[in-house]
Amino acid sequence: NKCGMRFKTDEWEVLLNSLNRIVVKNIPTQLMEALRPREAEAPHQAVVLPPPTPNSRLNFNVKSCVTKCVVQLLLIGGIRDLLELHFSRLEERFIVQILQTLELSYKFAKEFNEQIYLRYSLWKNGFLSDLKHLPGLLKQETDSLACQITIRYKHFIFYREKGTVREDLLNYFLSMCFNISSELSKKVNSLRDIIKNEKNLKNLQKPFQINQPATSAEEESVDYILKKLKFLELEREINNLKLIISTNIIPNLAQLDPELIRPKLTEINFMLLDMMQNLIFIRSHSCLMYASLSEPVSYTHLTLPTIYSV
């Protein structure tokens, strides 16, 4: 903290360039490169998968890969702490550079998380096989996204408190809010489709275990396995998006001057209503792991801000 207070522009430049290099160097690219031949197999055919083998067929150093995953999370946390302490001391170009660094981490994590079949193949072949869910980079994806939207908001407020309204910065923040809302809608719609077409929803909701024997030929098929894994992953992803919405979007929107956002007020209201409808659907069907029928339904923390009421 004290060192940062004494940093000059060139020292901040060296620090942030180094930070960017460390992030790039520690992106676990071997995860996307592993088991490519298996990923290229036809996963949509209802073929029976062989049982997991005791010997891993992974073609990379697992410890090194896991270390990179941990380093990514530590770097994101470090960036968040850095900005909390020294945001006002950073030139705009440095803030843009930090956002670009976070975006690199976010895009890789999101791309990997979308590869359900690849993640299952890694899991089946011994990568973090002791987990109770698919190995993935969901926390990296969520934390880097949450950090970006916080920076976008702080950047706008920083100039606003100085008496300058930067519409470009406000639009960046609102654009991220709209994108996250859209992402939530896509995932909820995917969840709806699975629920609508699944005959045995209770079985689909059961936690998936890599070494658990199947009880039917259908459950052994790649189609069924991928559908079950996608369902469980959607639950986790929606849960994390809900956290970003309740922590990083709604509280910040509530702090904005209504006059500044009046041109986009209709869009914002529709976005908030869409968020609420999606979250109510999730809760009413008790699909998420954190929700149960015995829990009271409460949306107090997601109530529409008074200034945005329609």
Core attributes:
310 residues, mainly alpha, 13 helices, flat, disordered C terminus
In short:
It contains 13 helices and no strands. With 310 residues, it is mainly α. The C terminus is likely disordered.
Q: How are the elements arranged and paired?
A:
Blueprint: H1 2-6, H2 9-25, H3 30-33, H4 36-39, H5 62-86, H6 92-113, H7 116-124, H8 138-160, H9 167-197, H10 201-205, H11 217-220, H12 222-255, H13 265-284
Helix pairs in contact: 2-6, 5-8, 6-8, 8-9, 8-12, 9-12, 9-13
Measured distance between first and last alpha carbons: 44 Å
Strands, count: 0
Shape: flat
Uncertain runs: 36-55, 287-310
Count of individual helical segments = 13
Order of helices and strands: HHHHHHHHHHHHH
- Measured as a percent range, the helix fraction is 55-70%
Beta strand %: under 5%
Structural class: mainly alpha
Oligomeric state as shown: single chain
What does this 3D model show about the protein?
The protein has 310 residues and is an all-alpha fold. It is 65% helix and 0% strand. The chain is built from 13 helices and no strands. It has helices at residues 2-6, 9-25, 30-33, 36-39, 62-86, 92-113, 116-124, 138-160, 167-197, 201-205, 217-220, 222-255, 265-284. The N and C termini lie far apart (44 Å). Mean pLDDT is 80; it is low at 36-55 and 287-310.
